UniProtKB/TrEMBL annotation:
Keywords: Signal. InterPro entries: PBI_I9 (IPR052471), S8pro/Inhibitor_I9_sf (IPR037045). This is Inhibitor I9 domain-containing protein. One of its GO terms (molecular function) is endopeptidase inhibitor activity. Residues 1-20 form the signal peptide. It comes from Endocarpon pusillum (strain Z07020 / HMAS-L-300199) (Lichen-forming fungus). GO terms for biological process: vacuole fusion, non-autophagic. It comes from the Eukaryota. The lineage of its organism: Eukaryota, Fungi, Dikarya, Ascomycota, Pezizomycotina. Belongs to the protease inhibitor I9 family. The keyword Signal applies.
Length: 106
């Protein structure tokens, strides 16, 4: 009981800090062919710093797939004015061109 009261007093006096985890979405980030490796590396580091993960690095195009928060993606957009990334939601497209999200056809 004393521990509960002490905890309650500390929360009331100092406030309760809640750590919110930003929701993440699956995206594909691509850059123009002339973008240097340093730009892609900086982008990946920014996403990871914000708690995101790089899920796949492409070889044929200058880009990668990631799970990232909206905040991280906004930061990525602001990193370079010369090499602007194209950020698209990652989704499955069927052979007949239908877009599939979460198992449903749109």
């Amino acid at each position: 009981m004393k521990l509960f009261l002490l905890s309650y007093l500390l929360i009331c006096l100092f406030g309760l800090t809640v750590i919110a985890v930003a929701p993440q979405k699956a995206v594909i980030v691509t850059y123009p062919d002339d973008a240097p490796d340093s730009v892609l590396d900086q982008t990946k580091k920014e996403i990871e710093r914000a708690g995101g993960i790089i899920t796949h690095e492409y070889k044929l195009i200058r880009g990668f797939a990631a799970q990232a928060s909206t905040r991280a993606l906004e930061a990525v957009q602001a990193l370079s004015s010369q090499y602007l990334p194209l950020i698209e939601e990652d989704s499955i497209v069927s052979i007949d061109g239908d877009l599939i999200r979460g198992g449903h056809t749109n």
